[in-house]
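Could you join me in thinking about how sequence relates to backbone shape in a protein? Label the sequence line and the structure token line clearly, so we can match residues to local backbone shapes. Once you have written the record down, we can walk along the chain together.
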Amino acid sequence: MVKNTSRRRKRHFMVINLIKKCKNNANVSNGTSTISESKLSENLKSYGFNQQETVSNSLVGNRITDIETLSNVFSELSCLKGYNNDIFLFKDSKYGLCSDFTLKCSKCDFLKGFSSTQKTLNVPEVNARFVYGMRQIGKGFSSAYKFCATLNLPALSKSGYKKHENRLLKVVTDVAEDSMCNAAKEVAETLNRNECGVSVDGTWQLDLEVMSPYCPTCRKLQKMHKNAEYVALKADHICQCNYEGSSAEMESVGAHRIFSR
């Protein structure tokens, strides 16, 4: 037998209304329990809800929400002034994944604006998190644009994306340097010396060392006759070969040279 889900939804909204009424009665009575409040508390318990847990369980974080679904939900709400079910959702502006909305009643002058995300120094938090998340997985603007297009999300412009990258660069650099300094101090205090082993990965470039076991000019000189052209080329030549050994050892030798500077 199929369960009646619509009745559950009505009961859920009834419970929320009971919670609000119970909370309002508690504020009016200044801590004095009334008969109505006691009845409401009993009703809450009969539904299997704990008032304290339900009220304190606040939602946090970000969600991907369909605008049409959100608009339909607001259309079912009553206006705070005229108590009419004529609330409409309008989009005022957008910047990347952040949108500014306005709730408006068609029968009175009720107007309420809000943003889809929190802002720090007038910078939408969701945009900064999105750009930082793309950098965390090694992707750039093109991948971010395709991702937003696939999910039907508004995307940052290329200039806006680069602006967020530049803002994040300084912050990430400062945090990385502080983290490495703290790690070095911790190792020095633990081992009572400054020398310690390090793990090196050649993927992310903070510094570089150009190494090559081959020089094309030297190879060319070996095949040339010792004439005037040979002498001139050899005099102006700076050999590019600065490593002798296997390719497997090249990364470790390069890391040692970087740390020895």
